[in-house]
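Hi team,

As requested, here is the filled-out complex form for the zinc ion run. I kept the field names the same as last time so the parser does not choke. Let me know if anything looks off before we queue the next batch.

— J.
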Amino acid sequence: MCQNPNEHPLNPSHFEGSSEEKQTAQEVEGGFAAYTQGMKFFDPHVHMTSRTTDDYQALADAGVVAIIEPAFWLGQPRTGLASFKDYFASLVGWERFRSSQFGIKHYCTIGLNSREANNEALAEEVMDILPLFLQKEGVVGVGEIGFDDQTAAEEKYYRAQLELAKEMNLPVQVHTPHRDKKKGTERSMAIALEHGLAPHMVVIDHNNEETVKSVLDQGFYAAFTIYPFTKMGNERMVEIVKQYGSERIMVNSAADWGISDPLAIPKTAALMKIKGISDSDIQKVTYQNALDSFAQSGQINEADFIHGLEIDQSLKFNGNTVLRGGQAPRVDKNSIFIR
Ligand SMILES: [Zn+2]
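And here is what came back:
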């Protein structure tokens, strides 16, 4: 998390370092679209429930055609099962509708996040309702699950949810801890293998230079979150693709209620282009690998979004709309680009 945004007036989030890097940062920040013309993006990890309609519009304008919203915590612990139920229902309901109003195909993963696994009484109740939601249309995996503090309770519910994923033949989206990352990542993979999950069904998320080699060597998908200001910036991401190629690697924004950047993928694609990464490698890490890994759920049909969704803002969801009084609905049938 950023402590003081004023120290980075150019935002970026994504860059620290030489003046040349800062200049590139400025160029990507303001003009990334000049480098990403015609590209389409798939963000496999973004918490849109926490974002605004402006973000949806910006994503659509930048070429993001599909997204996956993993279930996670709200920034504070839930106090009862009903909150989980309503949240899961909103991911397959209202939020998906909201996304469709901007021409973006919305999928989600459903799971008990690691932090709230530590409330065991509530965790037991959540486990009971997971199978119901995992069967819903557009649910492309179990996630995001894994370790936060690496407690015994976290391990217990991580294991239980791996079993559930195996039973239902769904991909798993694994959140790796920010503290003790190397150890937590290795442990997450070892436990998944112990439960007999095929590595190609498991996406290990929030990787860095320290974890990527082992994740790829063991056959898992390796996802990278482009965090603003520190951690995994997109300069570093370019170096990783230069070193490891594009096989089973994907980038995501993990944008949520904290300081984050929903446009992290198109901006990273622009930087990769500037740095000489091939178009086919860019396409793999910003679109294809996310699609391939989560399409193993049987829930994703690329034809649904590759040419854009029909936008009809006159539609309603349970009587509710994204429009406010007096606004004219936009109806762009057969339109790829939204303006
Ligand atoms: Zn997340």
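Two things worth flagging: The radius of gyration is 19 Å. Confidence is low (pLDDT under 50) at residues 1-16, 334-339.

Thanks,
J.
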